[in-house]
Amino acid sequence: MEREFLGTGWKFPLQVTPQGSIAQSTAEQRIEESIYLILSTAKGERVMLPDFGCGIHDLVFEPNNSITQTLVIKNIREALVRYEARIDVLDVEAQATDEQPNLLLMRISYRIRSNNALGNMVYPFYITEGQ
Questions:
Q1: What span, in angstroms and rounded, lies between the C-alpha atoms of 111 and 75?
Q2: What average pLDDT does the segment 49-55 reach?
Q3: When you count CB atoms within 10 A of the terminal residue's CB, does the N or C end of the chain come out lower?
């Protein structure tokens, strides 16, 4: 089934195929890579697009408590609504574990607008350095 409307572009992170060309990603894979790119980019990191990215990087070294988790959820939701127009953000959840108190697992559920396909991903966000 062709889904050209979801787009095709360079794979992220950038990869080269064995034939020497730039690896491509298509459809749902392209959207998931875009979400990862948005969340991994700190605001102000891109000189020509200083507002692009997600504000979660400003929360590094904050305590892993419900206030920080709420701010991380809010920043992720705002960034995805603003920069990924191909999806509707359904839910963003933060999950902390006792084994790794420096890690928040961000569970993101979304719907692709053009075909109503549901998607989800887990984004690891390290609040503090590894312990």
A1: 19
A2: 94
A3: N
